[in-house]
Design brief:
By secondary structure, this protein is of the alpha+beta class. It has 16 helices and 21 strands. The strands form seven sheets. Strands 9, 10, 11, 12, 13, 14 and 15 form a seven-stranded mixed β-sheet that branches.
Length: about 550
């Protein structure tokens, strides 16, 4: 910058990079499109998988959008904003993450030609807001009420296209059973569904347990394997001799003193077990360690015990059994004990696990996932997570829409009509929004090896000519024809679609409103000799896409 006397005015630090106006907008749009393109090929039941290898060589194979974006180390700030869309969609709905990101990328792509035509970004964002509001109105209008049959279809649709070895029908039954088991006040809390994975068997060996399963075995071989009418003590404190807070040494000079010291230590440990026994507990779950001598005394008293449980496992047990987590054994009372009909150690695969069933609060279940490899089980777990979430949404909201691109084509047609009633330059933005929605059926067809142009034409024709039922027509990926998706059992929760449109619109509008990117140069790292020249300046990924 220059002042009135043509003297340069230094406003920004030396080395700062700045891009303005269209250059900044197009850079940001390009970065967002790159993120969308990275996961676009995973969309739909015929979508491809990605293999992600991290810096230490761990491999993840998945077609789950949010998992892929979490594994990719995205650097560009605009690209990071698009990744946040996937995270929000996953947190809110559990499914539809790829749809939300691909739609956000297409909204930005459609805006490029408008910006080139000198349509101001504020006009575009206003048009996009109007279009999103209208789209959600239309989605609610074309939604269908749920029943048990439709909820089964929702679970099947969520599992279709995932790597579940063709067991989507079997797994959908488990998903629905689990969701119904934890349904409370009209809400499905998936935190009450614990998932455990054990290598071995096949995917169809996956099953549900009405209770809690802990990936721990009993502490001592002489402890009972099975306890009926269990009274459970939940401890957040170690059953060991307490160590001093400060460094201390005890000097013992004669054998009698040593014997007395050891006897006192043993008496302290024995008192812990006697306290547990006195309140009526016959099962102990400890978050901390349990001394070998304590294990011996517990086995003699017929008490079942496990140690070093995760905090989340202990909290789940407290919720399921109605017990209280106790931080001091001396304060343990009978009222703190949880109750269950059966605590039993069982062998799953090659390892022993502890099953707690018949809990006083049955709003807790566990799913044991089996599979040939860790990678298979990880993908089944992700698929089941998505399916549980969408089944929960269908139960909570009671509304679903047809899948396979049906709602997007209906929205595209309805928004095109709506655009002409708005008029002005916003009309151009609403038309661009309508065009952007076609990317979903386009990509689903493309990933299935079907001609995308033919698919869009067939869908539009079906929606315009089939009357009221036309709004349910999506693309059949086996034949390439437009068919009624309600009859084909392809349905999705209404909230998955509304959230995807809302999130995609918000991030597109936020990126479009950025007209200036000012990137500071990082401070050079100091080398051990204190010379900053040894470190490179480094930009925070502004120049690159990802």
């Amino acid at each position: 910058m220059y002042g009135s006397g043509n003297q340069p005015i230094i406003v920004l630090k030396e080395g700062t990079e700045r891009s303005k106006d269209k250059e900044a907008q197009f850079n940001n749009i390009a970065a967002a499109k790159a993120v969308a393109d990275a996961i676009r090929s995973t969309l739909g039941p015929k979508g491809m998988d990605k293999m992600l290898v991290d810096t230490i060589g761990d491999v993840v194979i998945t077609n789950d959008g949010v998992t892929i974006l979490n594994e990719i180390d995205v650097q560009h700030p605009a690209a990071k904003m698009v990744v946040e869309v996937a995270k929000t969609q996953d947190a809110e709905c559990g499914d539809g993450t790829t749809t939300a990101v691909v739609l956000a990328g297409e909204l930005l792509k459609q805006s490029e030609s408008l910006i080139d035509s000198n349509v101001h970004p504020t006009v575009i964002t206003n048009g996009y807001k109007l279009a999103a509001t209208k789209a959600i109105e239309v989605l609610k209008e074309i939604s269908v009420k749920t029943d048990d049959k439709i909820i089964k279809k929702v679970a099947m649709t969520a599992l279709t296209g995932k790597s579940v070895g063709g067991e989507d029908d079997y797994l959908s039954d488990i998903v629905i059973k689990a969701a119904k088991a934890v349904l409370d006040d009209g809400k499905v809390n998936d935190d009450n569904i614990k998932v455990q994975k054990k290598v071995g068997g096949v995917i169809k060996d996956t099953y549900m347990v009405e209770g809690i399963v802990i990936d721990k075995e009993r502490l001592h071989s002489r402890m009972p394997k099975k306890i009926e009418n269990a009274k459970i003590a939940l401890l957040a404190t170690p059953m060991e001799v307490k160590k001093t807070e400060v460094d201390a040494q005890i000097s013992i000079r004669d054998p009698a003193s040593m014997a007395a010291f050891l006897a006192e230590e043993e008496a302290t440990l024995k008192a812990m077990v006697e306290k547990v026994k006195s309140v009526g507990a016959n099962v102990v779950f400890s978050q901390k360690g349990v001394d070998d001598l304590v294990q011996h005394y517990m086995a003699k008293q017929g008490i079942f015990g496990c140690r070093r449980l995760k905090e989340s496992d202990l909290e789940a047990l407290a919720k399921a059994t109605g017990g209280n987590i106790v931080g001091n054994i001396a304060e343990l009372t009978e009222n703190d004990l949880g109750k269950a009909k059966l605590v039993e150690e069982k062998t799953v695969g090659a390892e022993d696990m502890t099953f707690i069933t018949g809990c006083s609060n049955p709003k807790a279940v566990s799913i044991i996932i089996r599979g040939g490899t860790e990678h298979v089980m990880d993908e089944v777990e992700r698929a089941m997570h998505d399916a549980i979430r969408v089944v929960g949404l269908a139960m909570e909201d009671g509304k679903v829409v047809a899948g396979a691109g049906a709602p997007e084509i209906e929205l595209a047609l309805r928004l095109s009509e709506y655009a002409s009633s708005v008029g002005g330059r916003e009309q151009l933005a609403i038309e661009a929004f309508a065009k952007a929605l076609e990317i979903i059926p386009w990509t689903i067809s493309e990933n299935a090896g079907i001609d995308s142009i033919d698919s869009i034409i067939k869908l539009k024709t079906a929606h315009e000519k089939k009357g009221k039922d036309g709004k349910y027509y999506g693309i059949d990926l086996e034949t390439g024809e437009a068919v009624d998706m309600l009859k084909k059992n392809v349905v999705e929760p209404l909230r998955v679609k509304t959230q995807a449109i809302t999130s995609a619109t918000e991030v597109a509008n936020m990126i479009l409103r950025i007209d200036d990117v000012i990137a500071s140069r990082r401070a050079a790292p100091m080398n051990p000799m204190g010379d900053p020249r040894m470190g490179g300046p480094g930009m925070d990924g502004i120049g690159g896409m990802m």
